[in-house]
Design brief:
This protein is an alpha/beta fold. The protein has 3 domains: 236 residues, Glutamine Phosphoribosylpyrophosphate, subunit 1, domain 1 (4-Layer Sandwich); 187 residues, Rossmann fold (3-Layer(aba) Sandwich); 146 residues, 3-Layer(aba) Sandwich (Rossmann fold). The protein is built from 19 helices and 25 strands. It is globular and about 80 Å long. About 1% of the residues have low confidence. Bound molecules: 6-O-phosphono-alpha-D-glucopyranose (G6P).
Length: 595
């Protein structure tokens, strides 16, 4: 998704802006640009990667104030003309923007009638023209008047030739100020500024900030408001590859630590008790879990966990569908899972839930994200920054958060509860064993990489794992993959089974085991090669499947953790075998801030 950066200080802006933009590349983009004001304002942009733009820039592009952008096309294709920054008619006011302006057609038409000329197909371009229209000497005031005309979502940074300030503003799209020493930054995302500062201010919806090199001031509806800085605990190292070939592999390998950190944070006796108020006790109730993408698959696992341990009905909904179908009642309590805390569909669902009086707990990996500000309660996962577009460790951390939510209130006997907690503590070691054996998974992946279609099947708590395995494989290796509840395969997909369409079967030693064995036999009878994930010690499935990946023994309730790690590695090595750009798959974005 689009990324914003801005710099004002004593250093040359160009290299700093390029460095900050490079740190945002993981979000996914198709074009980029920067504007730097020395004496004169200069804008350079193109439909290229940041590294290529850097090569194309004039060596003498000097100035100590500037803004930059990575664009993910929404209005108008990925072209040089549509790339940001965008300028007004005079070429002195320039803007970078994340979000969508819903009434841009009308504003565009009105501005044309007033004599403005446009050079792009973007909605963004109306912003510098509106600022130009209202500018009478006070840039902040002109921006405020322009924003008042706009409907939709935005995070913007504005730079005007000859002015010693940047203006930043947000509504429904994230924006932070990074606080340096005699210099300040603007960014849509914390990792952008981590090389320079770890002190950040999270702007809130409706905020307009004037950022100067020696400080900043935030106003809301014309009145100065106090926005306290936060110390970010993520380090630059957390957001770098640390010797791994890809962020995805690094993040897969961080999962034992993520689980350990989560257990440490959540499972002290006091904290286990302290989440009693996440769900109100007593009476009839219904838990609703909403999310998108991989987080939705965590939600599906959460449904099994909460229903089994907590014994209340749990409904899961895809956040983007909730607006069309979603119903709540006085009994509903919602959990929204979003690793970024910025997914537009998830935010819209939270707003709808809150407007209907439904209490919302958000599970997110980003403190200070928009979702945390909208929620009644926040449960922060302990995954650290996730850079790879394909979610891995953030998903595992979400599962841990769901286990933690369910365990204290579990309606099970104390001995079972203690044994589950003891099992949870064993999980980091179990996951580590999978990672230590990744070479074997890479060999299986090399086989999978030869096919164009792959099915994943599971049952019970491992049905969502099949969905997640298929999603991981398709998003990074571009192999067509589908996840199915094993019993559903015979209701259609059987027509596609052949020696050219392998099936990955996730088998757990729970009440689904016999049915999975039957499903594998049915698949084999249709000539599809079967790769089965089986628990160590299982000899029955090995007899039937073509090949197996042996997974460490865990409590079945926690099997989604170990099985998913195996499927993450399978997808990773299949994508590597095919030479795909693993961390930045085509057309995808890390944080989807548009509907
Ligand atoms: C994008 C990402 C996925 C992620 C999904 C939901 O599609 O590429 O990895 O699962 O958004 O994101 P969220 O931040 O709401 O969990």
């Amino acid at each position: 998704m689009c990324g914003i950066v801005g710099y004002i200080g004593e250093r040359q802006a160009k290299p700093i802006l390029l460095n900050c933009l490079a740190r945002l590349e993981y979000r996914g983009y198709d074009s980029c640009g920067i504007a730097v004001a020395g004496g004169k304002l200069q804008v350079h942009k193109d439909a290229v990667r940041v590294g290529v733009l850097k090569e194309k820039l004039p060596r003498r592009l000097e100035g100590k104030i500037g803004i930059g952008h990575t664009r993910w096309a929404t209005h108008g294709g990925p072209t040089k003309a549509n790339a940001h920054p965008h300028c007004d008619c005079t070429g002195k006011i320039t803007v970078v923007h994340n979000g969508i302006i819903y009434n841009f057609q009308q504003l565009h038409q009105q501005l044309i009638e007033e004599g403005h000329t446009f050079t792009s197909e973007t909605d963004t371009e109306v912003i510098p023209h509106l600022i130009e229209k209202y500018f009478t000497g006070d840039l902040e005031e002109a921006v405020a008047r322009a924003l008042a005309e706009m409907e939709g979502s935005y995070a913007i940074a504005v730079l005007m030739e000859g002015r010693p300030e940047l203006i930043a503003a947000r509504k429904d799209s994230p924006l932070i100020i990074g606080i340096g020493d005699g210099e300040n930054f603007i960014a849509s995302d914390v990792p952008a500024v981590l090389d320079h500062t770890s002190r950040v201010v999270y702007l809130e919806d409706g905020d307009i900030a004037v950022v100067r090199k020696e400080g900043f001031q935030v106003k809301r509806k014309g009145k100065v408001v106090d926005r306290q800085p936060h110390q970010v605990t993520w380090s630059v190292g957390d957001a770098q590859k640390g010797g791994y070939e890809h962020f995805m592999l690094k993040e897969i390998h961080e999962q034992p630590k993520v689980i350990r950190d989560t257990i440490r944070a959540y499972l002290t006796a006091d904290e286990a008790d302290s989440n009693r108020d996440i769900f109100t006790e007593g009476g009839e109730r219904e838990i609703l879990i909403l999310a998108c993408g991989t987080s939705y698959h965590a939600a599906l696992v959460g449904k099994y966990v909460l229903e089994q341990l907590f014994r209340v009905p749990v409904r899961t909904e895809i956040a983007s569908e909730f607006g069309f179908l979603g119903q709540t009642s006085a009994r509903s309590q919602a959990v929204v899972i979003t690793q970024s805390g910025e997914t537009a569909d998830a935010l819209k669902a939270i707003k709808k839930l809150r407007s209907e009086g439904c209490p919302v707990t958000v599970i997110t990996n980003v403190i200070g994200s928009s979702a945390t500000r909208l929620a009644d309660q926040v449960l922060c996962t302990q995954a650290g920054p996730e850079i790879s577009v394909a979610a891995t460790k953030s998903y595992t951390a979400q599962l841990m958060a769901l286990y933690w939510m369910a365990l204290p209130l579990a309606r099970i006997d104390l001995r079972r509860k203690d044994s589950l907690i003891a099992e949870l503590r064993q999980l980091p070691g179990r996951v580590q064993r999978i990672l230590d054996d990744e070479e074997k998974i890479a060999q299986h992946a090399a086989q999978i990489a030869k096919y164009d279609h792959v099915f994943f099947i599971g049952r019970g708590i491992n049905y969502p794992v099949a969905l997640e395995g298929a999603l991981k494989l398709k998003e990074i290796s571009y192999i067509h993959a589908e996840g199915y509840a094993a019993g559903e395969l015979k209701h259609g997909p059987f027509a596609l089974l052949s020696s050219e369409a392998p099936v990955v079967a996730i088998v757990a030693p729970d009440n689904t085991y016999d049915a999975m064995l039957t499903s594998i036999k049915e698949v084999k009878a249709r000539n599809s090669p079967v790769l089965a994930l089986v628990e160590e010690g299982d000899e029955v499935i090995e007899e039937v499947a073509d090949s197996v990946i042996v997974v460490p023994k865990v409590e079945p309730l926690f099997s989604p953790v170990v099985n998913t790690v195996v499927l993450q590695l399978l997808a990773y090595y299949a994508a590597k075998e095919r030479g795909c750009p693993i961390d930045f798959p085509r057309n995808l974005a890390k944080s989807v801030t548009v509907e």
